[in-house]
Amino acid sequence: xxxxxxxxxxxxxxxxxxxxxxxxxxxxxxxxxxxxxxxxxxxxxxxxxxxxxxxxxxxxxxxxxxxxxxxxxxxxxxxxxxxxxxxxxxxxxxxxxxxxxxxxxxxxxxxxxxxxxxxxxxxxxxxxxxxxxxxxxxxxxxxxxxxxxxxxxxxxxxxxxxxxxxxxxxxxxxxxxxxxxxxxxxxxxxxxxxxxxxxxxxxxxxxxxxxxxxxxxxxxxxxxxxxxxxxxxxxxxxxxxxxxxxxxxxxxxxxxxxxxxxxxxxxxxxxxxxxxxxxxxxxxxxxxxxxxxxxxxxxxxxxxxxxxxxxxxxxxxxxxxxxxxxxxxxxxxxxxxxxxxxxxxxxxxxxxxxxxxxxxxxxxxxxxxxxxxxxxxxxxxxxxxxxxxxxxxxxxxxxxxxxxxxxxxxxxxxxxxxxxxxxxxxxxxxxxxxxxxxxxxxxx
Length: 444
Known about the structure:
Helix content is 52%, strand content 14%. By secondary structure, the chain is α/β, with parallel strands linked by helices.
């Protein structure tokens, strides 16, 4: 284990002076804005095409656009889609230009597509309701009191989901956010199906019900949306666990149920199947053991209760999903910077990375907090690791500490797992120097 008292000189060519002071445009924001721009263009086109007249054809077009956006918002949240995007983005060889690999490594910003699609879909559905009211009042064929009432409820639920997904509220009231997203989405699907069946019956008296339904594009989009929503729950399993608690801050969870996730993936687990889902990194089992591990640190009510009163079984669903650190595949050598329990998401990579990973870990009393066995594993896999004990050495400037280690290690990219403020500063400072740096964002 290295100490970090000696500063390392900055090598020539490391700093990209043209990048200094340049505003960092996050891929997340670009994707989010791109979805809204496309929808704005479609809105203007609709004005020219006469969509905003309250008649059946316009209502069907606007409802279809809303459903397309909502379907588009669901896709980036599918476990298999996240894995597919990561796989495709990280296939580029390390010989490709750095700027291109830098951009590809930000694949985890696809949450911008999710949020953009959800907001756009909600807007279009509200527009649908606004046009539906005069059509219903004018006695437009195919719309009755029930269909209007259902549309109003769906609109209210969609708006509620968007409001409760506000980053500030989401951080303070995670369980409410989670419940609103899950049960709100299920409510929208049930009401969507009810409305689709009702409208198919009302609007096509000249055709059979099945023919009217099977020729409706909204029906097929509902089929796909429902399939995507149901699929993770088909894989719902209750699995046994064993635990080891090295301290009041940390518990190591061991899972051995006949399946070992890929290194670098995360998996959500819960005490109850419908609520309280929290993702944790999947870490390979210790030598001589089978299955895999998760490191859970005290970070709130749920984790605190889990550490104080560990269950004998947990629920898992879906498939493990790759995390931010999978971006390492695009670079020859990566410096991992972690603070406190941020070691968990990086641990699997640090124990198995054959590309020459390096580590800076800033934490208090690592052995007393995480246990001798875990720290010994880290030091054995990372003999050049910088492990900074804040209890003995005080709080460092994480960026300065990381930059010195970066220069000494010869890495060509940085991956940091820390709190929001530290992650933001470290990523920004490295990027200003022309160095690729990556860290989880609020919507990763």
